[in-house]
Amino acid sequence: MTVLHPRPQFVRENWESLDGVWGFAFDDSQVGVTEQWYDGLPEQTTIQVPFTYETKASGIHDESHHATVWYEKEVTLTTDKNVLLHFEGADYATTVWVNGKVVGEHHGCYTAFSFNIADYMVEGKNRITVRVQDSMDTAQPRGKQRWIKDNFGCWYVQTTGIWKSVWLEYVSPIHIDYVKMTPDVDNRKIDLELETNAWHDGLIAEATITFDGELIEKVSAFVKDGVATMQASVLAKGDPWSMKLWNTETPNLYDIHFSLIEENTEIDHVTSYFGMRKIAIEGDKILLNNEELYQRLILDQGYWQDSDLTPPSVSALELDIDKILEMGYNGVRKHQKVEDNRFLYLCDKKGVLVWSEVGSTYSFSDKAVANFTSEWLEIVKQNYNHPSIITWVPFNESWGVSDIHVNKKQQQFTEGIYYLTKAFDGMRPVITNDGWDHTISDIITLHDYEEIGELFTKRYTDREKLLSNAFQHNRFRHPFAKNYVDKGQPVIISEFGGIAFQSESGWGYGNQVKDEASFIERFDKITGAIQALDYISGFCYTQVSDVQQEINGLLTIDRKDKVDLSAIRAINERRKK
């Protein structure tokens, strides 16, 4: 990765990347703890973090499954400040030692986690040891990672161990731990909630808002029980017309600086940003900043040729976003993955709408419910502040809840996740089960890989018939689970297309096309059929790029254009509202 901060929305100046060469060892016999590998790895090789051992970029490139892996790195530290050790993502059960002492554990794949290692480090050289265990268990959130020996369908090589950046951050003993920023467009204000890492008397929190270097507002509040709440105007000098909205055309971002003050001395400082945007639903319409929004989305699984789920660089992330915009899309459905924070930063900066998902489980049990719920709530909290994220999508195509059409417990599980999400985030729509068999859902989304435009038109012309649940679509699925009905929500075709060129290997949806003209013709007809339906609020085309055996991208896996992207753009932009 280039030197862009791993979390551009929560920046302290004093940090250090630990990406690069680490010691590495497989532990297939599960002897590492017994033999105290945390005191030094035996017979270690090296690996390039943050790439997993399955990838070519790691320097190992072994695609077979190894359930337990170990990492080791020596770092030089100074003890005059507290040090936070950050992991942006490691799959799945992670244990961390510093100088042979256990620092902490974390379970999950798609969420970031941190440990304060101040009590474990010494002045000078320190050894960080990490063990990650990742089984083929379908009760843990997997996403598109296979759980059998070989790839199949639309499931690919597993991701084991550290797969996102690792870094150090130097902080004061009492510091800002989390900030929640909630824009209030109608009242031209921003609500702020700041949390510290510990309760401490006599602290004051300050927030200073600027836009293009001009001071907008400065507010402060006492920290009580580790929390400070503030509200600030976003109007320049009180001018009621000066609010800068975030949208796809003008993605304005306000800068905000948070300070923690003790006895008139600043003990912590964090730089961030926010966007003033409102996402709402009125009847069957989706509104962005109180104006009707038509979503032209593309599905993005975030895989690369030599590094799988890990982006090879920040420039690779930016290339994908720029290609998406070049093709005339205004948003992305980040499918079965929580992408690098720098991707979300770039979407914030460039005005790209994001639907945020999580990797699915593939079984239903008490264990799966607990694993999923814990990780999902972490995701919502960690990514809450990004203006680009406008929709939460916890479930996809009944994965992990395969009997949801009739199974009351599975229905209640999706309802529970819906309400838990709403309890933390009252702003954004939640789609409980993208594709079919919806329970409680703010938007009704349907998946349909029909390849003939006229049949699309015939099938979707009558909204009432379509959503009556007497109708079955993609693979004989119903729009709603049993005992749930249409309540007039917006409707989006959130998967369609998936066109693939003729090939001796790999697959796409429908019959493969022989040449570019055939590709554009089919793309034009199926996209046009959706655009012609007034009640449909948007679409999501499958997909940005090829992924391993799934060769239905508009780009190849190495991001080469398959067709004339200007033709794709012209078709997509025929309907903008």
From TrEMBL:
For the biological process aspect of GO, one term held by this record is: carbohydrate metabolic process
Domain Glycoside hydrolase family 2 immunoglobulin-like beta-sandwich intervals: 174-277
Every Glycosyl hydrolases family 2 sugar binding domain range: 16-168
Q: Which superkingdom does the taxonomy of this entry point to?
A: Bacteria
The chain positions of domain Glycoside hydrolase family 2 catalytic read 281-569
Query: What InterPro entries does the record point to?
Result: Beta-gal/glucu_dom_sf (IPR036156), Galactose-bd-like_sf (IPR008979), GH (IPR017853), GH2_Domain-Containing (IPR051913), Glyco_hydro_2_cat (IPR006103), Glyco_hydro_2_N (IPR006104), Ig-like_fold (IPR013783), Ig-like_GH2 (IPR006102)
Query: What keywords sit in the KW lines?
Result: Glycosidase, Hydrolase
Which GO molecular function annotations are given, in alphabetical order? hydrolase activity, hydrolyzing O-glycosyl compounds
Q: What family is this protein classified in?
A: Belongs to the glycosyl hydrolase 2 family.
Name this polypeptide is given: Glycoside hydrolase family 2
Species in which this protein is naturally found: Listeria booriae
